[in-house]
Write a structure and sequence with these properties.
Elements: E1 8-18, H1 23-34, E2 39-56, E3 65-84, E4 87-95, E5 100-105, E6 110-123, E7 127-131, E8 137-141
Antiparallel strand pairs: 1-6, 2-3, 2-5, 2-6, 3-4, 4-5, 7-8
Length: 142
C-alpha cells in the first residue's frame, strides 16, 4: 500500500449538466477550465439516456475489460472516484427498470434530464498515474 496525504481542501465545484450533454467530457472540460488538478467526487445523481462503461471480466494478471453501452432511460445512483492530474477516474452505479449496472465511466455517456455533480479540490498533492508491469495505472507522486 502507498499513502498520499494532501494539505487540505480547496474549491467546491458544482456541475449541473442538462439533457444531451456528455457526462465525462463535460466534467473534463470544466476541470480544465477551472485548473483543477486533484479532486474527489463527493456526490452525483441524475438520469442518463446512454451509458458507456467498462468492467473487468476475469482475474488474469493484466486486466481484461468488457466495454458496454446501454441506451435506455437510466438512473445514476452513484458516481465515485478521484481526479488525478486533471484526469477523472470515476466508477458509477446505474439502473434501469430491470437491472443494475456498474463500471468505469467512459466517454459517450449522455444525460437524459439532468446530472448534478459535486467535486472537492484537494490541495498539496502532486499525483499522476503510471502503468506498472501488469499494465495497471497506479498513483504516484511527482
Amino acid at each position: 500500500m502507498v499513502r498520499f496525504i494532501g494539505e487540505g481542501t480547496g474549491r467546491v465545484i458544482v456541475l449541473n449538466l442538462k439533457r444531451g450533454e456528455l457526462l465525462l467530457e463535460s466534467v473534463e472540460q470544466e476541470l480544465a477550465a477551472a485548473g483543477v488538478k486533484n479532486a474527489i467526487i463527493t456526490g452525483a445523481i441524475g438520469s442518463l439516456k446512454k451509458a458507456v462503461f467498462h468492467r473487468v471480466t476475469g482475474m488474469e494478471r493484466e486486466p481484461v475489460d468488457e466495454f458496454v453501452t446501454v441506451e435506455k432511460p437510466l438512473e445514476l445512483a452513484s458516481l465515485q472516484g478521484v481526479v488525478v492530474d486533471g484526469h477523472p477516474h470515476f466508477h458509477m452505479v446505474i439502473s434501469d427498470l430491470e437491472k443494475t449496472y456498474t463500471g468505469h465511466l467512459e466517454h459517450g455517456t449522455e444525460v437524459l434530464y439532468l446530472v448534478e455533480i459535486t467535486l472537492l479540490e484537494v490541495s498539496g498533492l502532486d499525483l499522476h498515474r503510471v502503468k506498472d508491469r501488469d499494465n495497471i495505472a497506479i498513483l504516484t507522486q511527482k
